[in-house]
Amino acid sequence: MGQVESGKRFTPNGTALTEGAIKRYRVVHKLVQAYSKEKNRGQDLSFESIDTRFVNEWKRWRADGATVGRIVNRPPVSSNVIRNDMKMLRMWMRESYHEGMHTNRIWESDVMRMKETPTAVFHLTPDELDVIENLDLSCLRKGKKGPKSTAHNTVRDMFLLACWTGGRISDVKRYPEIVLNAWEENGNKCPKAITYVQWKTNTRVTIPILPMAQRIIEKHNGALPKLPNDQKVNVCLKEIVKAAGIKRTIQLHNTSMDRHASSTAKVCDLVSFHTGRRTFATNIYKMDILSLAQLRSLTGHGTEAMLMKYLNVTQSEISEKATERLQEAFAQ
């Protein structure tokens, strides 16, 4: 943690840790301190005390959370979150072992390894995006004569931009400045592309402005509105998708520690602003006009494997596309 805070901690590739990685280090470190206070009488944990019993207690401690009355002191988490905890703890145990700080080799055992549970993966189709774009949001007024919802209009337009540019919410929040600069540099006309450095990965990307995104930008004459806070954004977005009549359901995998049965849920109840990024990647992939490397250059994913995991496509769809390409190639 000292290396992290002093900027001397790097990835295996020698690059600086991202803000997200640094935050994860800090979160797990604070959790270890909280666990020590609650379960170990306030005493610091020793490397040698990390055994099977500790791992099982940690998993249950994280899965159950801590609630006093209606106050949630520590929210319960899914098995995938606990899996990420284990990855961090395993890494700490491994590196401290190699530095000669202890002789505990539990990091090599399966007890600290957990399989990832598939989460809900879905995207919005181009037809559904058209419905959202043309939706009359007056239906979301409070009462028949209530004021128009400026927030709903803002969220709708900026979400559609995310769906056609693949931007994360951290970057879309910067679009008003990025797009306005590009608009002015292009003679007060919609630019053909925007270039910026992604906030999360520090990766420079150039994103083409497709006709669908162009309509939104020109609607605001290049001066895009600013998004409200993340919580309000996602509340408004769910209301918008529901009002658009998108009633499609998807199957969910239960990610709790105790149950394994699957269930279903409506897209309008699950949608979040991040859905826009997956929507962009999946819809562009299905158009079959870019290679994976080209698509990855737009999304900013570190590897093609990460991108493929991100796409909402099945293995059979990938196989069918590969078969079609081979047949076309040999037919010529």
Rg computed from alpha carbons, rounded to a whole number of angstroms: 23 Å
- Overall pLDDT confidence: 89
Distance between the termini: 59 Å
Helicity range = 40-55%
| Main beta sheet strand tally, sense and closure | 2 strands, antiparallel
Could you spell the SSE succession in H and E letters? HHHEEHHHHHEEHHEEHHHHH
* Overall geometric form: globular
- The chain-level structural class is mainly alpha
Characterise this structure.
The termini are far apart. The chain has 15 helices and 6 strands. α6 runs parallel beside α12. The strands form 3 sheets. A two-stranded antiparallel sheet has the order 1-2. It has a two-stranded antiparallel ribbon with strand order 3-4. A two-stranded antiparallel sheet has the order 5-6. The longest helix is centred in the N-terminal third of the chain and has 21 residues. The model has no long low-confidence stretch (mean pLDDT 89). By secondary structure, the chain is mainly alpha-helical.
